[in-house]
Design brief:
This protein is α+β, with helices and mostly antiparallel strands and 151 residues long. It is built from three helices and seven strands. A seven-stranded antiparallel beta sheet has the order 1-7-6-5-4-3-2.
Length: 151
């Protein structure tokens, strides 16, 4: 299994950021999806992210939620956008001296096509970490904008 860890400090209180991030089914603050559908509520709920240009939605299921600890975990059943299987991520927010720290941690398998294209497992893992870190940074930056706007 490969992994990626990305952390970013935001100049907003942890409670403010969690109030936005902790609503698993409500990600209107995130650029990209043109529409998000939810199935169910609470742990076990699924969100379907409809991305422009993609035939099938990205399907994510909430597997753990700790409101008090400002953390949730989810798994991706289907993501036609990336060549990763068995993807599971944990996202958390904690207080920091300059506001809060947002942390994204993910584990996943890289499919053989991506390994071959990258020239081996190590190169594929580095490419995955670069791609995911970029995505996590975009998410953290979006959170910072929304939290700063008081939404």
């Amino acid at each position: 299994m490969a992994q990626c860890i990305y952390e970013q400090t935001l100049a907003a209180p942890a409670d403010t950021v969690w109030a936005i991030l902790g609503r698993f089914g409500d990600i209107g603050w995130l650029p990209g999806p043109e529409r998000v559908e939810t199935i169910g509520a609470g742990v076990g709920m699924t969100r379907l992210l409809h991305i422009p240009g993609m035939e099938a939605p990205v399907e994510e299921t909430l597997v753990a939620l700790d409101d008090e600890g400002h953390q949730f975990s989810y798994r991706v059943k289907r993501n036609p956008f990336v060549p990763y299987d068995n993807y599971q991520a944990t996202v958390g927010v904690s207080a920091a001296q300059a506001g809060c720290l947002v942390q994204f941690r993910s584990i996943f398998d890289i499919d053989q096509t991506a390994i071959d294209a990258a020239g081996g497992q190590e190169a594929a893992e580095q490419a995955a970490q670069t791609a995911l870190s970029g995505f996590y940074r975009m998410m953290a930056d979006a959170l910072a904008r929304v939290a700063g706007a008081g939404q």
